[in-house]
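Example S7 (structure tokens).
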């Protein structure tokens, strides 16, 4: 299978990117890591008039501390996150998630911003962004817009990003010493998309859970936070009875959706198992601290 004919440009700054986007309009496609776009081109699911390659745009790169957040540029690759000492120190949830992302060749090229912009419900970074209360920094002709992760993902492969905007970075609050986290996912084979996965965070006060975040991948048609279950757990000390309550609450709240290999009921069961494991991990973190 071969991609359709298209023009190609490699701008060196954001100004040039916006000029090209304005000139070509709907016929333009932004090329970040290309790990999804290349496949859609070859299957003729995407037929752009021009590809705008973002590899040379310096403003989209780098991982840096910016006050009380860690700013991750849109063109930072999965491997760069995996190797970053800043990420390891301040956002260990990302370090736990990154080995689950596809295979090494894809992690070397795929980008953080590309994953967020695509909004795949089975991808790891959107769930992590939700769990960490991250903010998407988007820029367009009208200037900068900051979008909370909870408001960014709007449906199946759809986001709040406007057609004339692009993501320049994401900002994630730094983890404190009381921060506990857990990441787990089930895939048919290593590197496959997740059947179900969970990114969980909480602030521990003794053995009680606070600021609980449960963000799911692969369970429904978009990256999803189970806010009702979070509220049930908020301020509570974990017990067997509470965990059982939380699992039932999750089943009532999150209406899982079937895929080609797993029924909705199977996914609901797996989500309950993952929630039990995550709560155990959070509790063990509190005990160790």
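Recovered sequence:
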């Amino acid at each position: 299978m071969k991609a359709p004919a298209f023009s190609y440009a490699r701008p060196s700054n954001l100004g040039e990117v916006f000029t090209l986007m304005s000139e070509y309009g709907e016929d333009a496609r932004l090329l970040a890591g290309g790990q999804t776009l290349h496949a859609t081109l070859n299957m003729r699911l995407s037929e752009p008039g021009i590809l705008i390659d973002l590899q040379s745009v310096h403003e989209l790169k780098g991982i840096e501390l910016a006050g009380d957040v860690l700013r991750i540029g849109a063109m930072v690759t999965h491997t760069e996150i995996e190797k970053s000492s800043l990420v390891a120190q301040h956002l260990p949830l990302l370090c736990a998630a990154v080995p689950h992302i596809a295979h090494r060749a894809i992690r070397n090229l795929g980008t953080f911003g590309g994953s967020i912009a695509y909004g795949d419900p089975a991808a790891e970074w959107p769930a992590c962004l939700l769990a960490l209360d991250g903010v998407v920094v988007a820029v367009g002709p009208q200037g900068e817009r900051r979008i909370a992760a909870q408001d960014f993902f709007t449906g199946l492969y759809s986001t709040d990003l406007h057609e004339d905007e692009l993501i320049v970075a994401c900002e994630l609050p730094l983890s404190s010493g009381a921060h506990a986290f857990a990441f787990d996912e089930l895939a048919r084979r290593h590197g496959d998309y997740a059947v179900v996965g969970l990114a969980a965070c909480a602030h521990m006060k003794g053995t009680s859970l606070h600021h609980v975040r449960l963000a799911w991948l692969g369970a429904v048609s978009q990256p999803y936070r189970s806010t009702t279950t979070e509220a049930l757990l908020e301020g509570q000390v974990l017990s067997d009875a509470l965990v059982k309550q939380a699992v039932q609450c999750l089943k009532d709240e999150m209406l899982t959706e079937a895929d080609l290999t797993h029924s909705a009921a199977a996914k609901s069961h797996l989500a309950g198992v993952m929630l039990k494991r995550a709560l155990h991990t959070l509790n063990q973190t509190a005990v160790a601290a």
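Notes on this example. The mean pLDDT is 93.
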